[in-house]
From TrEMBL:
This is Laminin B. One of its GO terms (cellular component) is basement membrane. Keywords: Disulfide bond, Glycoprotein, Laminin EGF-like domain, Repeat, Signal. Coiled coil: none annotated. Residues 539-571 are annotated as: Disordered. One of its GO terms (biological process) is tissue development.
Length: 583
């Protein structure tokens, strides 16, 4: 489709030195999906001849191109057979345009449209945009495809599931629940008392295992099978509604459905299939924000104006996780989260951080700032170091300071040292912190929770440590800054030895136990040999093989050089049995 410009003429009769500005502009168009504005009856729908498509036959059909002559835009003629030049998955057409250049999709680049531009990932021919732009909750633009695999959460009544679902309307403020509950019969959960809804559309509300953080469901499938009976016209309300983070998105399928038969609907968690409640197209940001904290998934139960029976037979939802057994979820982003954020899309605050509101960093969910306990830990440690006193003495000092100020009369939840008239500037100076960085709630926490010390609060999770939980703790390896619960992996080293990542990115053990050597401590050290015992250490000192048996390895000749190296490969094993060799 060709793209052009729309020009609006300004009033040339106005003589003014001021700039002319343009305010709100709206333009109604017709789209091929349901909207609150009804049908566009004024828009023509032509019966196009072969080679033309569009409501007014304004475009050439696939396999046709403009000839450059003819009425209006030019005649559409069959494409001349020529060798495809644009073979990249991000190319709009396999044939080059004017000037011999390939036309790339929005998120594709390169001479052959086979490269993702910066801040995007995973190019696929089926993606109308080429690559997927990084979302990362707005806190970074660095991401790549996740290595997670698809997993399924489901309810399957024919297989014996007995989940009791509730019915509700789509009203978020005052939802209606029919007094008669649905009941689980052999192969489905069924509802028949539709007269109780007084004409309102009812929805099946999925249980908690489908909700919460399902941001990795992006690109996955929601599939459900149902059956219904009734009379009248088909219900035109949305088929699926999801809610999360104060965002509501709706999905309306175009697949024909039939009464008295099993119908299966399969939809993808891609933004192009979802709409906002105002009829506008949903965006990737809308969808990911909703999936990051799902409150509701509603599946329509009322399919006819006079519905008499409706049953849900099965429903399944794909998401992704490291231990998944399905296909790799390439559509799920793995962001390089800054300190304070975790999750594949940096959608959660790291341990020790909490949402502070506003959008200092993230325009989507607010900034993750240090919690009061972390600030208090820093303050107390600074005071201890500066004043050279025990933690208990520091606590007493702070207690006396609070007693001498109006802080004790201030609501701890709303306290802010900037708002207090009486402050002990000396304490703030000793702590070497600006006044604005020392919230009163930190001092309250100090008095209520614990005596300050270096390990007063252990706030890091998932085998991490550090001020920002930015590194893996001893006995684990990985990149803790990625922000997922699976960044730190136990070291594959015997005897709980520590490990690290070497220059080639391979894990290597540090400080192997006695008798072991090698990158993973899986080889016998010099002077040790493999043990033949079922239990015990894998390597034992040379000379000890088994009960009452010894191995004697003659030392190499005293001369140096190649002969010395070869001699190591000509060792003789001599078995000796003696009652003097005891363990």
């Amino acid at each position: 489709m060709r793209q052009g410009n729309v020009c609006l003429r300004s009033d040339l009769k106005v003589v003014s030195n001021n700039d002319i500005t343009l305010g709100h502009v709206s333009w109604q168009i017709a789209v091929d999906r349901p909207t609150p504005d009804g049908l566009a009856l004024e828009v023509e729908q032509c019966s196009c001849p072969p080679g033309y498509i569009g409501t007014s036959c304004e475009d050439c059909a696939p396999g046709y191109e403009r000839s450059g002559h003819g009425p209006y835009l030019g005649t559409c003629v069959p494409v001349q057979q020529r060798q495809p030049q644009c073979t990249g998955p991000g190319a709009v057409s396999p044939y080059a345009g004017h000037g011999g250049r390939c036309q790339c999709k929005t998120y594709a680049q390169g001479p052959n449209c086979d490269q993702c531009p910066p801040n995007s990932f995973y190019m696929a021919a089926t993606n109308p945009q080429g690559c997927i732009p990084c979302f990362c909750s707005g806190v970074t633009q660095q991401c790549q495809s996740s290595s997670f695999r698809r997993q399924i959460v489901e309810i399957n009544y024919p297989r014996g599931d007995r989940d009791q679902l509730i019915l509700t309307t789509s009203d978020i403020r005052q939802p209606y629940h029919p007094p008669t509950p649905a009941y689980v019969s052999g192969r489905a959960i069924e509802f028949v008392n539709f007269q109780e809804a007084n004409g309102q559309t009812l929805y099946w509300k999925l249980p908690a295992k489908f909700l919460g953080n399902k941001v990795t469901a992006y690109g996955g499938t929601l599939k459900y099978t149902f059956r219904f009976s009734g009379e009248g016209r088909t219900n035109q309300e949305p088929d699926v509604i999801i809610r999360g983070n104060d965002i509501t998105l709706q999905y309306t399928h175009r697949q024909p459905i039939h009464a008295e038969r099993e119908n299966t609907i399969e939809l993808k968690f891609f933004e192009d299939g979802w709409q906002r409640v105002d009829g506008q197209q949903g965006t990737r940001e809308h969808l990911l924000m909703a999936l990051a904290d799902l409150d509701d998934i509603l599946i329509k139960a009322t399919y006819m104006e006079e519905c008499s029976q409706s049953s849900l037979i099965s429903v399944s939802m794909e998401f992704a996780e490291p231990q998944g057994r399905g296909q790799v979820a390439y559509e799920v982003e793995q962001c390089s989260c800054p300190p304070g954020y975790i999750g594949t899309s940096c959608e959660d605050c790291a341990p020790g951080y909490s949402r502070t509101g506003g959008d200092l960093i993230s325009v989507f969910s607010g900034k993750c700032g240090l919690s009061s306990k972390v600030v208090c830990t820093w303050v107390c440690a600074s005071v201890v170091n500066a004043m050279d006193m025990q933690p208990s003495a520091t606590r007493n000092t702070v207690s006396a300071w609070i007693a001498s100020t109006t802080l004790k009369e201030t609501n701890a939840k709303d306290a802010n040292l900037d708002s207090l008239e009486t402050l002990d500037e000396e304490l703030l100076t000793i702590a070497n912190l600006p006044r604005r960085d020392l919230p009163a709630i930190a001092i309250i926490t100090l008095l209520e929770d614990a005596t300050p010390s270096a390990d007063a609060w252990s706030l890091c999770e998932h085998n991490t440590e550090g001020t920002h939980c930015e590194r893996c703790k001893k006995g684990f390896y990985g990149d803790a800054t990625k922000g997922t619960p699976y960044d730190c992996t136990p070291c594959p080293c015997p005897g709980a030895a520590d490990c690290y990542l070497d220059a080639q990115g391979q894990v290597a053990c540090r400080n192997c136990p006695a008798g072991l050597s090698g990158r993973l401590c899986d080889e016998c050290a010099p002077g040790y040999t493999r043990s033949h015992k079922i239990a015990g250490r894998p390597c034992e000192p040379i000379g000890q093989v088994g009960d009452n048996e010894r191995t004697y390895v003659p030392p190499p000749p005293p001369h140096e050089g190649e002969q010395r190296r070869r001699s190591r490969h000509r060792r003789r094993r001599i078995r000796v049995r003696s009652r003097f060799f005891q363990h």
